[in-house]
Amino acid sequence: MLRKKSLLALLLSLCMVVGILPATVFAAGAGMPQNIRWAESPKSMVQWDAPSGGGQYQYELRLKLGETIIDGPDLTVQRYHLFNGSLMTEARENYTVEIRARSCIIVGEFPNEYVTSPGEWGDWATLEGSGGGEGPTPPHEHSFDGWKNNGTQHWKECSCGEKSEESPHNFGEWELIYYDVNTKYDVCERQCLTCGYEQIDRYREHQHYYTDDWSSGSTTHWKVCYYCKEVNQDTVANHTFGDWTETKPATTTEEGLKERTCSVCEYTQEETIPVHTHDVHDKAWKYDDTNHWQ
Ligand SMILES: [Zn+2]
Ligand SMILES: [Zn+2]
Ligand SMILES: [Zn+2]
Ligand SMILES: [Zn+2]
Ligand SMILES: [Zn+2]
Fold first, then answer.
1. Which residues of 6-35 are buried (b: 16+ CB within 10 A; e: fewer)?
2. Domain end among 62, 91, 126
3. I need a surface site. Which of 36, 95, 202, 283 has the fewest CB within 10 A?
4. Total domains present in the chain
């Protein structure tokens, strides 16, 4: 009797376990996003289907490479999501997409909707292959705003990672920023005429530069480089003086002064006029102690 009773109890508990088991399995699968797949284009877009059973859901996504989270977590109420394509440097098959869902009430319309009364997050669902699915391919028009660049080229890039107009920089002329007196090289800059990328070269062979200014000594004038101060030997020449101008006449007691100016460099040379002595005159001249006349 006792034996029969315990057997009955065992059967009863077994029935309960068997009865509960399918319900538990169903609960684990329920609430999980279905059929996660990569979109045909753009390459960083994933799509998925809602958990079975209807209702409104908010989704959380993350993109992993191995165990490292590359992008996300991102939240959405759509059933597609664009990961940051520029972070995806490898083939997308190498990445793992994980999405989980929670029931919620969505208020308002895309893109101004918001979520209230969120439930508990379900389990993470992972991407398994691609293709198929009930969801429509979401529209995506590439938008290529502004230039991106690196040291050698420029391009435009959509948020999905698609690149356009990729080409090498289109550099203008080198322009001097300054002459480095320590290295004796010109430090120059040039800009890409398309994207504005600035390239600097600190070791451009120095190009002499001359202004209108001349340097001068007592007999010659020359030009020096504005930056390195080196004398340009091709410009060294004797002054080209104009006529003497008497700036102070000599008297019989004091020396006078005269000057002349180089028409090229404007160097002015000054010389004294000796004290006047009347013995330079011939007999036609008359004179007294201070003056002479004819
Ligand atoms: Zn795009
Ligand atoms: Zn450029
Ligand atoms: Zn120079
Ligand atoms: Zn001169
Ligand atoms: Zn005289």
1. eeeeeeeeeeeeeeeeeeeeeeeeebbbbb
2. 126
3. 283
4. 3
Are 121 and 36 within one domain? yes
Q: One digit per residue, pLDDT tens: the chain, 294 residues?
A: 445 555 555 544 544 444 444 444 444 456 888 888 888 778 888 888 888 888 899 999 999 888 889 898 999 988 888 888 888 888 888 888 999 999 999 998 877 888 999 999 998 888 854 444 455 566 778 889 889 999 999 999 988 888 999 999 999 999 999 999 999 999 999 999 999 999 999 999 999 999 999 999 999 999 999 999 999 999 999 999 999 999 999 988 899 999 999 999 999 999 999 988 877 666 666 777 777 777
Sheet strand arrangement including 163-168: 148-149, 153-157, 163-168
Ligand closest to Cα of 141 equals 1
Task: Quote the ligand 4 centre to 263 CA distance (angstroms).
Answer: 7
Instruction: Choose one of 76, 99, 126: the last residue of a domain.
Output: 126
Q: Which residue range is the domain that position 184 belongs to?
A: 144-206
Tell me the ligand closest to 235's alpha carbon: 4
Give distance in angstroms: CA of 102 to centre of ligand 1.
28
What is the ipTM metric for this complex?
Answer: 0.72
Q: Does residue 14 fall inside a structural domain?
A: no
- Tell whether 98 is covered by a domain: yes
Token duo for residue 41: 């284009």
Residues with CB under 5 A from ligand 3 (ion): 208, 225, 227-228
- The Å distance, Cα 242 to ligand 4 centre, comes to 10
C-alpha 101: how far from chain center: 39
